[in-house]
Amino acid sequence: MTKSSLKPNRGDDNSESNEDEVIETSKISNSDAFECFAKGLMWFEQQTDSDSTELMLLNQLRDRAAKRLQSCLRQSKLPFKPI
Question: How is the chain classified by DSSP, letter by letter?
Fold first, then answer.
């Protein structure tokens, strides 16, 4: 789990203190990122006003998530078993 801190707005009447507010967020897996980009890409391609530059960007992000997913799935070394 990663933590990110946000400073409350100074003009916010609901804030009771001036201390930093800490919000906990969970790390998104490579497979979840790939699935989201793949679905987003399918959605974007269905839109009538889709832009080719944005389409290429989504393709690149999906491909990056796929590469990271594959690199995590690969076994780096075979276990040594003496004969």
Answer: -EEEEEPPPTT-TT---SSPEEEEEPPPPHHHHHHHHHHHHHHHHH-TT--HHHHHHHHHHHHHHHHHHHHHHS-SSPPP---
pLDDT digit string (tens) for 25-61? 788 898 999 999 999 999 999 999 988 999 999 999 9
64 within some domain: yes
The residue with greater pLDDT, 10 or 42, is: 42
What global pTM score does this model have?
0.56
Domain assignment of residue 30, yes or no: no
Asked if residue 18 is part of any domain, the answer here is no
Domain hosting 63: range is 52-77
Is 56 a domain residue?
yes
